[in-house]
Write a structure and sequence with these properties.
This protein is an alpha/beta fold. The protein contains seven helices and eleven strands.
């Protein structure tokens, strides 16, 4: 069994692959102050509740956009699982040809999702990852990673409204029934959900024109993908576990 770990700014997602199938997955809050032992105990308990033996873990791969937690998880894997993990970064074989001006600037999560998308759907395509930030990653017909766009995530936008507008409440992100809200909460939900969907469609349409690929496939992933994707015109499919699949593929390519 292979343990894949995606460390994001908001959540840490763990996956257990058995014979190339995702057997279990877990989502944790990204606690930057947690220690090696705290993460170790937490993961040990998750494994035990799911009848997973740590002794059955044959390999570990980590993708992180939170640099301080990389060493913590490396030490945790060595102490509790007795394995030195593979970390996605410079020198790792991904199969992607990065056309970014400075490839070291590309977030590991963006590379991982692109690898999975190309493997499953073939290029050309765009991956829209709805995380703390929403990223748009473009892969051309030859399989080159071109770059993309980064915008504030839907959670950040929602929290900014509450913090910067004194009379607006903190709301739960739910899709409203109508665009025209008849109260403040529904009006905010409408503006955020439908406005964000419009933003996604606008960026995708511009990408299609710039790449000269009017029919390229658009794949959505990330925690907020399901919420927004159904209101867009351009997203073709939602793959909630795309990052975990990409980590599995990269692990295999480096064996």
């Amino acid at each position: 069994m292979i343990l894949v770990v995606d460390i994001g700014n908001t959540n840490i997602v763990l996956g257990i692959y058995k014979d190339r199938e995702l057997a279990h997955h877990f989502r944790l809050s990204t606690a930057r102050q947690s220690t090696v032992d705290e993460f170790g105990v937490l993961i040990y308990n998750l494994f035990r509740m799911s009848d997973i033996s740590i002794n059955d873990i044959e390999g570990v791969i980590i993708s992180s956009v939170v640099p301080p937690l990389v060493n913590v998880f490396e030490d945790m894997c060595q102490k509790f699982i007795h394995i030195t993990p593979l970390v996605v970064g410079p020198g790792i074989k991904t199969g992607l040809n990065l056309r970014y001006e400075n490839p070291r600037e590309v977030g590991a999560d963006r590379i991982v999702t692109a690898v999975a998308a190309v493997s499953k759907y073939k290029a050309p395509l765009v991956v829209v990852d709805f995380g703390t930030a929403t990223t748009f990653d473009c892969i051309d017909r030859e399989g080159n990673y071109l770059g993309g766009a980064i915008v504030p995530g839907i959670g950040i936008a929602t929290e900014a409204l509450y913090q910067r507008a004194s009379k607006l409440p903190r709301i739960e992100l739910e899709k409203p029934k109508k665009v025209i809200g008849r109260n403040t909460i529904h009006a905010m939900q409408s503006g955020i959900i439908f406005g964000y969907a419009g933003q996604v469609d606008g960026i995708i349409e511009r990408i299609k024109i710039e790449m000269g690929e009017p029919t390229l496939k658009v794949i959505a992933t990330g925690g907020m993908a399901e919420l927004v994707a159904s209101e867009t015109k351009t997203i073709d499919v939602v793959e909630s576990m795309l990052t975990l699949e990409g980590l599995r593929l990269i692990y295999e390519r480096n064996q």
